Amino acid sequence: MNKEFLFELLKARGVSGDETPVGKVVYEYMKQYADQVDVDVVGNVTATINPGVPFKVMLAGHSDEIGLRVTHFEEGGFIRVSPVGGIYVISYPGHKVRIDTAKGPVYGAVVIDRSIMSDANMGADKIQIDIGASTEEEARAAVSVGDPVTFDTDYRELLGDRVTSRAFDDRIGVFVVMEALKLAKEQGAVIGVSATATVGEEVNGCGAFFAASNVKPAIAIAVDVTFATDSPHTDPARSGQVKLGGGPVLSKGPGIPKAVNECIEASAAALDIKLQYEVSGGWTHTDGDTMTKTNAGVPFTVISIPLRYMHSPAEVLSLSDVEKTIELLAGFLCDLSSEMNFKPFG
Ligand SMILES: [Zn+2]
Q: Considering the entire predicted model, what is its pTM?
């Protein structure tokens, strides 16, 4: 596993709509390993092996992350924002943030006081950023309306093989699909495979729609993160027990053909990789939901990496889950043949 590539992905900023820095990291890295790397008009980066083979599998990990966007400047130089994606407002006060402007990054502190911290229902409209400006004019000169804001946090390696960072959702998915494509090529996969770092998953899924409409895969697999249930205040009864270090998590749900999951299970068994399961009652809230609705309909499934503290500045995962997921996907891609039938019967 190339941790350097992973850490480059985590350092890059990619609030939905501003994923280009992440896309560039993927593009430069995958040029060395894929047969072809393409960028489309919305910024999806797709790496492909065996491009001439008509039977194609598409893997998707989303390059975008949740965050904020600058909306307004106040007297005194404070900056107001609106949310991008499903943020926890309460995770912002007292935190350092980074605003990516056309002229480069500008750093700030999010206003905090006792009244803010006692307001359990605080809205994103209450978030104010102090960039060190004394006047509205000074702030306006440094930052523009629409500039994206992220937590100014770094990844850190924790005990064992655990790592904390912002934006593991879903930079880890991007990492996994690209590393799986590399490994499948090394292991001699003969089918066509496209791995896409999609844009916009946290807000509208448009990236996955553009990409899958273009790739026209026979099967699509979204690689995302899911809630680990082995940390405090979690409930395994909600959608299944998921442990850090317990292995890749396969989704079961009404839109997911059982035959696709059975193929993944067979590959996992052959590689002696333990799977965990989660259940979605309807949509999976991943790029899988979007990819399945392209062309004449695409059979899909979702494979997730267990993650603690999702959508926070300090998400935590285990690298063994990441490694196992890469191995599993590469094995699956090598086991597949274009004669496979994914119908439930007949
Ligand atoms: Zn995600």
A: 0.97
